[in-house]
Design a protein that fits this description.
Length: about 400
């Protein structure tokens, strides 16, 4: 919108009216006379006509009006900045639960504009696998989810039904075709759900409708691959509430709109087959340690900062990881699919350095809506010698504030 304001001249717009002056005599209500004293006729203050003279009551009325509005104006200015005085409890709309005042947190402190107590974000609490039994059941999983560092439940739904080809490479589910969701428990008993879902193009609208019907937000919709067939889309999701099972049912309803098969445990003999890849040199080139994930080589780096999303502190790596997935092609060659997580001032350097290393850029976008600091992601693609690719990635990696991660939950 333009910052210029113009008088509304459209039909039906309010126009000034000139009222007939009223005459007040002794005994007239002081609100109309302003001074409230006996005297001769005066032009009525409420009549809307200009006064012909100066009265002693006018400055007093303006002073009283200013005093009446001062608390409101002060409250507006301070509520928006979190500067309300000591002992002042200000209600803020909780957009995560459809509006209304935000209840106090577990300590009894009213939450500030970021939904935390006096500016302190809610912290995740450690859980055990058994704490999520009802969620696992609602997700329709049996032995599929895993606990990540005791901080969150991570459930994967690989799209083994899709035969996707990109630039002559048959993309495996572990390379770029895995839906996943993470469930985090917080100190106030609430649960956060984050993740992304892989959808064929003919599934996309049905999945979107199911998410909206269950009050699960779509925070991003985009591609993770360059030209590929058939067309696939990735939906990033976010939800928060005190009924973890209801959240899980919503995720399940969305997945049921796709042809995603039920996850099956890998036979132990095929769980982590030997890799025809010089992983030692790849680790040295990147400055981290990767892992064999069902025959793919994966290496993850986490943001060093604490990430806060809508007043909730995210476990390290959740929604804030740089991840490189390498699908083996034989003879030390790999297909690389991955993404970098960056803050704004890192983006130009990372993109330039990736191209200097002949790494293909796929997308630049956000995955979330309101995390702090604001995060940007660029998805990448490369095919070639695994060690050479790792060395090409390192200058871009060095331009970001990340630390090597272990087991990650995706983003």
């Amino acid at each position: 919108m333009s910052g210029n304001r113009e008088q509304d001249m459209s039909p039906g717009a309010a126009t000034p009216r000139t009222a007939t002056p009223r005459t007040h005599t002794r005994g007239t209500d002081a609100r109309n006379t302003g001074a409230g004293k006996a005297g001769g006729p005066r032009t009525g203050v409420l009549a809307g006509t200009p006064r012909t003279g100066t009265t002693a009551g006018a400055p007093r009325r303006r002073l009283l009006a200013a005093a009446a509005f001062a608390p409101l104006l002060a409250g507006v200015g301070m509520a928006g900045t979190g500067l309300a005085g000591p002992g002042t409890a200000t209600a803020h709309a909780d957009t995560r639960r459809g509006g209304g005042p935000v209840p106090p947190d577990h300590s009894g402190h009213p939450r500030g504009p970021d939904h935390s107590g006096h500016g302190r974000p809610l912290k995740p609490v450690r859980t055990k696998a058994g704490d999520w039994d009802h969620v696992v059941k609602a997700l329709g999983l049996s032995g599929g989810p895993s606990m990540v560092r005791g901080e969150f439940l991570h459930a994967r739904f690989p799209r083994t039904d899709l035969d996707v080809v990109s630039y002559g490479v048959k993309v495996s589910p572990g390379l770029a075709l895995g839906s996943h969701v993470a469930f985090v428990r917080y100190e106030d008993g609430s649960t956060l759900v984050m993740g992304d879902l892989v959808c064929a193009e003919n599934e996309l609208q049905r999945v979107s409708d199911a998410l909206f019907a269950h009050h699960i937000e779509m925070t991003a919709l985009h591609k993770h691959l360059l030209a590929h067939s058939p067309d696939v889309w990735w939906i990033h999701v976010h939800a928060h509430g005190h009924d973890a099972v209801a959240l899980a049912r919503g995720v399940r309803a969305a997945i049921d709109r796709t042809a995603t098969p039920a996850p099956q445990p890998r036979p132990r003999s095929l769980e982590n087959p030997p890799l025809d890849l010089d992983t030692r040199r790849i680790d040295a080139a990147l400055g981290g340690t990767g892992s064999n994930d069902g025959g793919l080589y994966k290496i993850v780096f986490h943001r060093r900062e604490t990430i806060v999303d809508r007043g909730m502190e995210l476990p390290q790596g959740l929604g804030a990881s740089t991840a490189f997935n390498m699908q083996l092609l034989g003879g030390g060659r790999v297909a690389l699919s991955g993404d970098f997580v960056m803050v704004a001032d890192e983006v130009p350097k990372v993109l330039a350095r990736l191209r200097q290393g002949k790494i293909n850029l796929v997308e630049l976008h956000n995955h979330g809506l309101s995390e702090e600091p604001r995060l940007f992601f660029t998805h990448i693609w490369a095919v070639g010698d695994g060690v050479r690719i790792a060395r090409a990635l390192r200058p871009a990696l060095d331009a970001t504030r990340v630390t090597p991660g272990g087991q990650g939950g995706g983003d």
